[in-house]
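Supplementary Note 3. Input sequence used for the single-chain structure prediction.
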Amino acid sequence: MKHFVNLSLLLFFISLVASGLLRYLAPFELITTRIHIVSGLALVVLVGFHLLNRGKYFFNQFTGRGQRRQRSPKQFLLPLSVLAVWGYLLAASFLNWWPVTSIIAQSHESRHVREIFRSDRKAVHEVDDLGLRIKRASDTDASLRLDFDWGEAYPKSSDGTVGGKRQPQIAIWAETEDGTVLETLFLSETAAFADEVKWGDQTFSRADILPVWHARYSKILEEAVDQKEMEEELDAVTSATPVRDFTMEGYLRMESQPFTVLVEINAPDDPNRYYHHEQETSNEGYMPEGMGQPSIIYEAFVFPEDDQRHFLLKLSGHSGKGSENDGQVFFETDQLTTAKELVEKILLEVDWGSEK
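The predicted structure, written as discrete structure tokens, is reproduced below.
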């Protein structure tokens, strides 16, 4: 049993360190996270067995018992110094003190903070073989819900399940009447944690895959950076409050202004007779190899003053030539084929809570 525990400790320690380094240095991957969690739990169990076998040793170290001669005060220095180092690093982790701040600043997530997207904590989603469901709750009892039903052209494996590197990428966001992004409600995992992503058999940027969302989202990121710099200057003198929150929290209420919910979806390597790479790059239908048809846009307009709660998102256009797009939607959809069959329907439900 002793040898089994020792060998297991070595192997799980290696996998824990390797997955930890990947989590620290590379973009988020669910597989890496699973390996890290399982290795950590295994180590907890194995260390527990080890401590049971060595419990008497640790007891004697901290109590001084079992010694042939009386211990001097200096002999308590080792356990006390270990406790001090452990306690400080634990406190530094909670309170973001040095050296934790310096270590975290060098992580992939900190160095690419402007690339990484995470939705609001009150926005949750669930994906399965039939569709996608998203709910954005609010501080009140109001909420917004989207239900997707996959269409005939949505890529699936031979057993009918979804998942894998050939999955379409989806962005969902809300805008004001003048086209200003309020909040991004959902972004597919592949595109959420890095600007350059492996998609299908090629590497593309988010500007290639979801150009409309990317152009509009990048604009509010620039505004957010400018606002932060302005607030830091003003706070030093006046303790100014934020100018804009970049959230749709205030719009999930009856007296709010109208807003639009938009969905952009793009499938990899889905060329047709019009959109493909085997033509002149100057042609309107030219698309890079591995891209195929452009992303398509669905939208629904929400007017809080009306009594309507359910909205069917309608196909409004496409993104054109990928990364060349500046946020514009092209309304001509006659040349699109399978791209229009990725989803069967998208239903939006807005619950105004007790206000309605």
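Residues 211-238 form the longest helix (28 residues). The two ends are 66 Å apart (CA to CA).
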